[in-house]
Amino acid sequence: MSLAFTCLIDGRYDLGECPTWDADTGTLYFANIKGRTIHAYDWGSRTLRASWTFARDVGSFGLCRDGRLIVAVWDEVVLFDMATGTSEVIARIEADLPHTRLNDGKVGPDGAFWVGTMDLRSPREPVASLYRVAHDGSVRHVTGDLRVSNGLAWSPDGKTLYHADSGPGWIDSWDFDVATGEASNRRRFAQLTNETGRPDGGTVDAAGNYWSAGVSAGILNCFAPDGSLTGAHPMPVPRPTMPCFCGPDLEDLVVTSLRPDDAAALEAYPRSGSLFHTRPGVRGLPADRFGPLD
């Protein structure tokens, strides 16, 4: 049975991405990559309560243990203080590569910020990579030969890492060691096409299912832990970008989207770029936070 979606925020952002739930404050954060902004949506009042603008495109971000955000801003990873609006650069990634920028990123159960890059050219070449940024700012290269690094998520027990490349359309899974932040035993989890929904952002629910925004097909795909497709849910817009479980009980699911460079598509789907909501009948997982583990 397909899920029923409603429009939560009629924002029509150029490239809505990275919805992130902060249970401590009841806030849903999300980015508009091309708008160079991060927005804060108050869940209780259903209103946008704050926005912050950065100097360059915001690829992704995550929550920190000290209340700040860790933000991927083009080729820099910064710690951003929302109260003061100040940023502290802790790492630079691929600053010497003019055709890449930081893209999808997420804090892992190891307390590190995992973030990948993407090739900005068309056609895209396999020049991008995935990195792990530790709390001390040290950067470790995880894997390369990527076109658009995407889809980061972890299983409920933290023992499996999911990662995708939107270009060729695969999703891979890795064995993951929370104590060391090491990923190993990489294998193919799923292969998607333009028609079945090449993978953009992803998330995992409490039962271990992996949810993937099928950005090429207007679909939200759901995979069981064994990689079998259990649901392909049509979205109200053709370019969904990332799902996120949120709300006080983590039973709400919000999906961001982008506005295509296509006049006919925008006429047919004027709410493209907005955020959409559903309740899929499963709970999500709380967001991990950047910083040393206790």
UniProtKB/TrEMBL annotation:
Transmembrane spans: none
SMP-30/Gluconolactonase/LRE-like region domain ranges (all copies): 15-258
Highest taxon of source: Bacteria
Database matches in Gene3D superfamilies: TolB, C-terminal domain (2.120.10.30)
Entry similarity comment: Belongs to the SMP-30/CGR1 family.
Protein name as it appears in the record: SMP-30/gluconolactonase/LRE family protein
Organism: Pannonibacter tanglangensis
